[in-house]
Amino acid sequence: PTERQLWLENRRLGIGGSDIAAIIGLSKWSTAYDIWLDKRGEAEVEDNETEYQYWGTVLEDVVAREYTRRSERKVQRVNGVLTHPEAGFARANIDRAVVNPDISGVVRWKDGRLTTDRILECKTSNAFTARLWGEAETDEVPDYYLVQVQWYLGITGCEVGDLAVLIGGNDYRTFTIQRDDEIIADLLEEGRKFWQLVQSGVAPDPQTLDVAKRISSQHIPGNR
Hints:
Distance between the termini: 47 Å
Number of strands: 9
Helix content: 40-55%
Strand order of the largest sheet: 1-4-7-8-9
Number of helices: 7
Strand content: 15-25%
């Protein structure tokens, strides 16, 4: 099997950060049913990367380097898929860990958590979506990315998720998302129910957007 085929097979072993937004009805790319088919191995799978996926991967390094240059924080890759210590279906493949020298000079996965308090996600976005992003240094990111970062914070045990984005090839912004245990608990509960459907072969009902609405309202400034 190719590296991509192995990656696709590995994705079927649990729920990742890009899956959870779709599961609760917040993804602009997929529905819960799409994810269910994928996890069951019943979806049609493209073996080749799209151009969008290819450039997202190539530019991840560029965005990570710029984050380090501006923040003066050292980042590193953490190889492998990280699994929630108590919810084995919850999995994370983070872009980078941010080194906190007060905790550890090298970030490792130890005793079911990362040996740091901060992670970094690197994104690219086209200029047409610039209006979906708030001012730099806030936490005003699209809800599907907010959910992804909270999912990763829940799995890694970290307190803060920075999200660095390059918009339209020339507009770089960093956002900072604080861990929210209420959102994480909601996501883990929805993930647990969804994973039971995957294992039992029962397709998910048409989406109820209660959790999505609750997360969106919690994320609106002034609504916390």
